[in-house]
Amino acid sequence: MTQGKMKQPTLSLVPGKRKPPGDAPSAAPEAETLAQRLEEAIRQLALTRTLLAEKQRECIELASALAHDAHVDALTGLFNRRKFNQLCVAEIARSVRYGTPLALIMVDIDQFKRVNDVHGPLLGDRALIDIARLLSGRMRASDALCRWGGEEFMILAPHLEQAAAVQMADKLRAAVAAADFGPPGPLTCSLGVVTYRDGDRAIDLILRADTCLYRAKRTGRNCVATQS
Fold it and tell me: CA–CA separation, 88 vs 194, rounded Å?
């Protein structure tokens, strides 16, 4: 039996095909893409921060406007009754702490209903605005003028004894009586003046001022009445 010859492997001297250098994956485009993405993310973050800052400013402005509206009378721009109540409590506490006098003056425009009935509410509102401006112009820096409601106003006057508060009230009365309010014609006001007494609460001052004001009305209007 003839044994077949085994086939010997042959080595090829022909070099195998290699990928050209240009075909190898390059990291440069990928790095460039990542840099672009990072730049865009930074830009978006800056824009978001700007928008958030704008919204924060808007919220602060809105909160400020709401706080303002909560304490200011829409017609006259004076403090409203809610703010007056807060100020009255604060001024009483200050008066007690430092032992200083405190006066409260309540002002009511005489027969104001006639102005609205004869000339209409628009001219009535105009007259209230003018009166508020007139009174405001005669306040000291420490005084607080508030619209109590309707045609009534309150004045908190720290550091005023009763005699000085009555003098101030009479000057206000004379200024209103001498003013020109246009079509509604001359207007007058009645005023009640009280000062803080030991143990007074805000309601005590207000009730006494209202009693004095009522007495001024009964006396004939266009006058000042004070506590005995």
Answer: 13
